[in-house]
Design brief:
The protein has 149 residues and is mainly β. Helix content is 11%, strand content 43%. The chain has 1 helix and 10 strands, in the order αββββββββββ. Strands 1, 2, 3, 4, 5, 6, 7, 8, 9 and 10 form a 10-stranded mixed sheet that branches. It is globular.
């Protein structure tokens, strides 16, 4: 065996491994007024018609309001969680300057309505967030966890 054969093999293995590695999907999305961190939901059953959308809003520089969203996986969305009645559930989420807001499964969240397909673990979908003042933000909705519902 030649003395250089072993290091060359290691180099080839390292290069092959580097080619297989994929960069992590971006989880931060920015508007001119704030940052959106990691929009996600759980995988759903085949017959599910809703899913809970969670994310965090931070670095909020000026008051704004999330007033809509568009995604090919749902026909609509509404605000949901403790203290939100069906009558006041339209999507109108205030975002206050200098504060942080985290949408959680068991707290305040956005409910995706009339799912167009089952949400499968590991999939990603386009998500357009529409604000009252800031320009719309093109984000990615990740299906991160196995569904329990």
């Amino acid at each position: 065996m030649r003395p250089t054969a072993l290091p060359r093999r290691h180099l080839l293995i390292a290069l092959a491994g580097a080619g297989l590695a994929r960069p992590a999907p971006a989880c931060e999305f920015f508007s001119s007024r704030l940052r959106i961190w990691h929009p996600w939901t759980r995988a759903t059953r085949v017959d599910a018609d809703t899913a809970r959308l969670c994310m965090r809003f931070d670095e909020i520089q000026a008051d704004d309001r999330l007033v809509g969203l568009v995604t090919p996986v749902a026909a609509g969305a509404r605000l949901a969680g403790p203290g939100i009645s069906k009558d006041e559930s339209r999507l109108s989420l205030p975002l206050r300057a200098g504060q942080e807001l985290t949408l959680l499964e068991d707290g305040l969240h956005i409910e995706l309505l009339d799912l167009q397909q089952p949400l499968q673990l590991g999939r990603s979908f386009p998500l357009r967030l529409i604000f009252e003042f800031a320009a719309p933000v093109e984000a990615t909705l990740n299906v991160d966890y196995a569904g329990l519902r």
